[in-house]
Amino acid sequence: MLSGRRAVWMPAALLLRMRTEEKTSSWPGQARHAATGGILSPPQSPDIELRLPTRHHLPTMTIPNLITIARLIMVPIVIVMIMQQRWAAAFILFVVAGVSDGVDGFIARHFDMKSEFGAYIDPIADKALLVSIYVALAVVGAIPSWLAIVVVSRDAMIVAAVLLSWVMSRPVEIKPILLSKLNTAAQIGFAAFALAANAYGVELAGFEDIAMLAVATLTVASAGAYLGGWLRHMAA
């Protein structure tokens, strides 16, 4: 009987002690920590606040963002079409992707649907499509491999520079410049020409060599412009 009474009395005393210390303690959880003999971890500062993810912090799935994601999904499909040399399908998908790029930009600007997520995902989708197409075209022998290496190296250099500046706590913002826009237009135009030439037998005497030279020149020039800006930023 005595052991039974102690079994009831001890938890009650422990509960009373915890309540008393909670009223006098200025730290949340300090009373429970003391009452249990230090079993619990030390209390945290009251300034620390744990927040669960909310809908406000999630990317906004606007119509332009959905179109951009759809364009990103097209990338592996286009690559498969090129590797299987189904040129007409690859060309049509490339045109659809290009049109979608203009459509999502128009909707975002004119219907107030711009978002931070869209600002990041849109150039990623564009570069993923272009770089993948140049690599695939080089693999199947539709374009010289050196041209694909130039295109890929330029984008890899820019990504590496951005990551290095971030690691060194000197983040740099890459803004599109006129030379970069001309380079992108040239790359898109030549990729479309290469796909159409294989799909529909389009041949323009001497145009291919001139177009390749223009793409390579603009690619190297835009890479140099970005590199110069990055070096000035890091030296400032």
TrEMBL record:
Residues 26-45 are annotated as: Disordered. The keyword Ion transport does not apply. InterPro entries: CDP-alcohol_PTase-I (IPR050324), CDP-OH_P_trans (IPR000462), CDP-OH_PTrfase_TM_dom (IPR043130), CDP_ALCOHOL_P_TRANSF_CS (IPR048254). Pathway: Lipid metabolism. It is a multi-pass membrane protein. One of its GO terms (molecular function) is phosphotransferase activity, for other substituted phosphate groups. One of its GO terms (biological process) is glycerophospholipid biosynthetic process. Keywords: Lipid biosynthesis, Lipid metabolism, Membrane, Phospholipid biosynthesis, Phospholipid metabolism, Transferase, Transmembrane, Transmembrane helix. The keyword Lipid biosynthesis applies. The chain crosses the membrane at residues 63-82, 88-107, 128-150, 184-204, 210-231. It is found in: Membrane. It comes from the Bacteria. Pfam families: CDP-OH_P_transf (PF01066). One of its GO terms (cellular component) is membrane. Belongs to the CDP-alcohol phosphatidyltransferase class-I family. This is CDP-diacylglycerol--glycerol-3-phosphate 3-phosphatidyltransferase.
